[in-house]
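Lab channel / #folding
Pinned by the channel admin:
"Please post every new chain as: sequence first, then the structure tokens as a reply. Keep commentary short and put observations after the output so the thread stays searchable."

First post following the new format, from NK:
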Amino acid sequence: MSEQGGRSVLVTGANRGIGRAIAERFVAAGDKVATIYRSGELPEGVLGVVGDVRDTASIDAAFTEVEAQHGPVEVVVANAGVTRDQLLMRMSDEDFDTVLDTNLAGAFRVARRASKGMIRLRRGRVVLISSVVAMYGGPGQVNYSASKAGLIGMARSITRELGGRGITANVVAPGFIDTAMTQALPEKQQQAYLAAIPAGRFGAVDDVAAAVHFLASDAAAYISGAVIPVDGGLGMGH
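Reply from TO:
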């Protein structure tokens, strides 16, 4: 168990990919880990509560259940997200609204509910999972890029509001990570992406989980409002 082990940690969307790796990392450190998710198998040791980040009442009920079993949430990781890629002129209002409501407003609902307990505790860690496209952009991703860029302003505003209460809010911006979504890309497209990444490889989900775990640790107590890229040098801070 790490020095931070035993905290109440909540990760949204821990059933697959990056969210799953993040949850497993906290479990391995001895934390009490819960997730709000919609469906799928969860990692061992993770308390699963079915909920929808697009619905405030659903989030409130999920947090209430987690708090009853694990105590007030001390670390929250807003990871749940969706894509609806489409070229700008073909993108429907529904494509845009669904992505913004899930990725941006969903993170807001989760952070807002988590902040209640953190303010009482006078400590807390909020970590929002963004993307390299937040600042780098991506064709066909006007909705996704906008939703992920919005998380940066959100984390910085939370930092200014709650920084004096022992609460930090940071953003992790993964690049191309080796997940099912990346593996499904055509080989030619994968090679083009690899050529643009200085590290010469796609990232692993554990690379992202390690950054999140660090930001939630005592070692990162004086880091807030930061954007931590985990992208092999692809974005170069942009």
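NK: Residues 153 and 202 are 27 Å apart (CA to CA).
TO: also worth noting, The chain has a mean pLDDT of 95.
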